[in-house]
Amino acid sequence: MSNTQPTRRLAAILFTDIVGSTTMMQRDEQSALSVNRRYITVLKQLVSTHNGEILNDFGDGSLCTFSSATQAVQCAMEMQQHFQAEPRVPLRIGLHVGEIFFENEKVFGDGVNVASRVQSLGVANSILFSSEINSKIKNQQEFKSVSLGRFHFKNVDEPVEVFALANAGFIVPDKKKIEGKLLQKTSVKKRSIFIALLLIIGAISFFTYHQFFSLSAAASKEKFVAILPFSNTSSDKDNEFFSDGMTDETITQVSKIGSLKVISRSSAMQYKNTRKPLKQIAQELGVSFILLGEIQKSGDSVRINAQLIDAATDQHVWSEYYDRNIKELFAIQSDVAEKIANALQTKLSPAEKINLTKHYTENVDAFKSYRKGRWFWDKRSKEDYDSAEAYYRHAIELDPDYALAYVGLADCYTYNQTGLSPAEAIPIARDYVSQALMLDSNLAEALTTKAFIQSHIEYDWRGAKPILEKVIRGNPNYAIAHIYYGNVLFCTGNAEAGINETKKALALDPLSSVFNMVLGREYYQSRKYDQSISQLRKTLTINPRFNSAYVFMGYALMQKKLYAQAVDAFSRVPPNSFDVGFNGTLLLSYAYSASGDKKRAKDEFDKISKADYQKIDPALLAQFYISLGNFNEALKLLEHAYDRHSLMMGAMRTEPIYDPIRNEPRFKALLKKTGLG
Known about the structure:
Among the domains are: 7-173, 2-Layer Sandwich (Alpha-Beta Plaits); 219-359, Rossmann fold. Helix content is 53%, strand content 14%. It has 29 helices and 14 strands. Strands 1, 2, 3, 4, 5, 6, 7 and 8 form an 8-stranded mixed β-sheet that branches. Strands 9, 10, 11, 12, 13 and 14 form a 6-stranded mixed β-sheet that branches. Helix 21 runs antiparallel to helix 22 and helix 27 packs antiparallel against helix 28 (631-643).
């Protein structure tokens, strides 16, 4: 006999709907069924992972509940990130917090109605939610939201303010094109009079504002700026290096202005040749202003058109046209930075004014060679590192006092792909850093590389900390300094401060796959496994081939004893990955061993050749031997990793895999030697 007494509870409600499912079914039944099967599989998996409950499954949509708004939003994010891979699922999601009640196994309540109405406003790959949800997540830095306005819904008494998740990778619906289960317009006389009065009051307010408060809108906005890649309008496509270099240097110059927040190069460059609307780019990057530029080089002449745009209004805040000799290029970069500061009503300090006139070379050819070096460096492969090193050396031949080029060479040997041992490579890197600092003792890039070597490789974490603090004080927009400082704080025991510093780096470089991975790694090493998995999935939407993200996702899944999923993650890592010596075959051996399948672990391990075995980081091998219970061999390998100055030793204090040997005297001795004990 069914229960007729209704039961009530407060819940975070999540509604999903596959956009255009009926049309898909009519067009291609097999394809539509494939999409539905994938949707249902992922839905069940992720709702369970986030401790939710599926109350109704409509085939092409669902009603789910969670005990917290954070769990609901995290689940929604992971679903949408999953569904960007093929076969894509064009899903829209709506969320609300409200009371629900059950009667005769049916679900009722105003909360259900509101969540359904909010979902109806969405588009594929969007996540919308009510103000009740927004109030509970707005202080969490991992979530970005934007208000779409207040809406009158059918069968809902009061208007509901609706927000969209504005994190990178999610679609924010165009306010002008929103459709859904809205209340139809009425012709009630009182309503018309009320609206007319509002319009009159609004008009009076508008003119009053412009009459008495005509200061630029830029003065009251958060001064967060994105400098998008300059367009190369030259007929010679080789000038792409030149236009990209102009973009980089403009970012560098504007970043010297401490009161402005400037998006880093790696995120900005992802919008090269984009056709996305400026408002969408601004929402994805979390900025208020966007600088666009065009550059045309012909012989010794260069023409540059730059314009600063208020992303919210699409209005020009400032624009300038330059037609100069190429020798004046660096003066143009300084002028653009200063004009942006003036346009945004930012007062420059005397030190900032001096810094804006400072350039690291006056040799345009050396500048071009250095920029080519950075271009190859950013591609991050052994062959590209060789090319980067050659261009840096050429830049120094053209200008022996080019400090940044020496830092570039130092980085090539710090992230060593030369075939040298760390004991051979690191002294070379240190020498190049020293040469850069002799030319400029306050050079942020050189100090940051010095601090990285000192902390991550030489294990002098305490000595590196004030160096990075100095860099950040003088260059608050230098994202890489924030990420290294976050590493130092995290590895030495201040996990919360380290994560916050990583989030600062991400605010400056939100589309960096490396920075997103670092946050996922820190969540994992903080034992926040669900947050780690969610963050790493986000990372893989930015860069689906990023091996380190698969590694740490596999580690987090292993800690949750989701062995099959961990094996799937590790199987995506190549046998010899570039990422800090990770080896996909060894990771699979570790997964099988830790899960209890010793035979398959041995079968995988036997696939590793002697030559490849020598290349694997000893710290990674130690993790495998811990899974076998051979602690003596694991400790021997960790001691070898210390002697080799392995980067992985920085995780000694935080890595969960080391928990079984933490009380071993040899492990404690290693902690002290690495400055982490």
